[in-house]
Amino acid sequence: MPPFASASEIVRKRKHGGTALLTPPSQTSKPAGKKYKLWDVVLLPKALIVVTLLACGIYLYSISSIHHSYSTNSVPFRIVELLGKGKGVIATRDIRQGEIILREKPLFVVPSSITSSPGALLLDLLSGLTDKQEASYYDLSYVNLPQGLHPGTRAYDEALTLAIFQTNAVSAGQNVGIFPRMARLNHGCSSAFNAVYTWREREGAIVVHALKPIKEGEELLTTYTDTKRPRDARRQFLQQHYGFHCGCAVCSLPTDLSEVSDKRLSAISELYQRFSAWQYGQVSGREAEAVANEIWAIGEEEGYWSERGRLAADVAWVAAAHSDAAAETAWARLALRWYSYELGADSEQAEEMRKIVARPEAHPAWSSRHSESLEGPWQRPAGDV
Ligand SMILES: C[S@@+](CC[C@H](N)C(=O)[O-])C[C@H]1O[C@@H](n2cnc3c(N)ncnc32)[C@H](O)[C@@H]1O
Fold first, then answer.
1. Structural domain ending residue among the three candidates 182, 207, 242
2. Is 39 exposed, middle or buried (0-12, 13-18, 19+ CB in 10 A)?
3. Which pLDDT belongs to residue 114?
4. N or C: which end of the chain has fewer CB within 10 A?
5. At a CB cut-off of 8 Å and minimum separation 6, what does 55 contact?
6. Where in this protein does the record put region Disordered (predicted)?
7. Which atom of ligand 1 is the closest one to the Cα of 248?
């Protein structure tokens, strides 16, 4: 499924967009994940395949615990049929920015690297599920089922099982998992997605948060790819991997407005590259901060709010390195706010920011560079800390 993700994974390698921000050790957990592609693994040279099926095992979770911990009534959405999209997720009430929308344990996960045929592996795995669990898997949508296979044959069963997996699986730490309810989230680009998922290792679950306020009746959308790419590139990727022509609110802008949006998104990507040059001493702390403020301002124009927690946390890192406690604290507060929206106020990242606000000099980067005064965040949307 979607690379659901958003934000910071994007930042890291991400999201397929590869903005390379700072990667301080304190921020290694990744928010919204990238959609995993089993075929990527399958195509790895044998020599690189480090995990065998037997050695690694498959971690199968009980779906009963999923249903036990999350009753249908407790979520602010319903799953419905949507014209041209298959199923999708609609808010059943107004949802606040930062509100948790779903916490879901996986139906199953598989290791990221395998040695056996992926279709065979998945069939083996599914044979260990209850009928209900199996039915929930086969109820998921799929694309890219190879032509010419005959239903009822082993080859067809393997291909179908794999197609479902590739359409719906997302990364779950070191593994890749199926989350049947989250898998109903459709995709939106740039300013169009309003929900972000994150894998939480300590909970063994995926959590989905509202990146933006969502109105009752609105569709909840996540993102399957790095949407900081131009429209044509986004559409090509989505068509190839997910079998649809994206007609989200951003992709369906008239040409002139779409070009403006593309320019903003490209500018954000380039600015992230520039920001990351601070790591190598190629830009000063003040310059890095100015770049971050520019990213923020362009994101505001575009309506692209994802990754802001990570961005602000990175600037706090820069400020700490240059021994500017005031700027560090201001950026950490901002990071706390946006991490809370995107990843949850109870996320590890939010907790880290609280510690930094309380004791700026205890930051691991503190005073690791020459002293420099920064300005703090200056272009903030109304209501920011
Ligand atoms: C992870 S599933 C999402 C849920 C799916 N719609 C369903 O019926 O279960 C991914 C598939 O949903 C469809 N989809 C997702 N986002 C879409 C969009 N913005 N427009 C049209 N189809 C979309 C595509 O068929 C895609 O392969």
1. 242
2. middle
3. 85
4. C
5. none
6. 361-385
7. 19
In the chain the beta strands, taken as DSSP E runs, fall at: 59-60, 77-82, 86-91, 100-104, 108-111, 170-172, 175-178, 186-187, 195-200, 205-210, 219-222
237 and 338 share one domain: no
Total domain count, the chain: 2
C-beta separation of 196 from 209 below 8 A: yes
- Percentages (nearest 5) of helix, strand, coil residues in the chain: 45, 15, 40
Tell me if 282 is assigned to some domain.
yes
Q: Is residue 248 part of a domain?
A: no
DSSP 3-state of 80: strand
- pLDDT at residue 10, rounded to an integer: 23
| 21 Cα to the center of ligand 1, angstroms | 30
Q: Which domain holds residue 79?
A: 7-242
> Lowest mean pLDDT: which of 39-53, 150-164, 172-186, 298-312?
39-53
Give the CA angle between residues 219, 189, 305 to the nearest 5°: 90
Domain assignment present for 224: yes
**Minimum mean pLDDT among 47-51, 154-158, 213-217, 351-355: which range?**
47-51
End-to-end distance of the chain based on CA atoms, in angstroms?
34
User: For residue 172, how far is its CA from the centre of ligand 1 (angstroms)?
Assistant: 20
* Structural contact between residues 311 and 274, judged by C-beta atoms closer than 8 angstroms: no
| Centroid of ligand 1 to alpha carbon of 12 (angstroms) | 25
Ligand 1 atom closest to residue 183's alpha carbon, by position in its atom list: 1
Q: Using CA atoms of 204, 208, 209, 215 in order, give the dihedral in degrees to the nearest 10.
A: -160
ipTM: 1.00
Distance 136 CA to ligand 1 centre (A): 16
Mutate to test the pocket of ligand 1, among 144, 186, 227 (most ligand atoms within 8 A of CB): 186
If pLDDT is split at 50, 70 and 90, which confidence band does 174 have? very high
Task: Give 20's contacts (C-beta < 8 A, 6+ positions apart).
Answer: 11, 12, 272, 273, 276
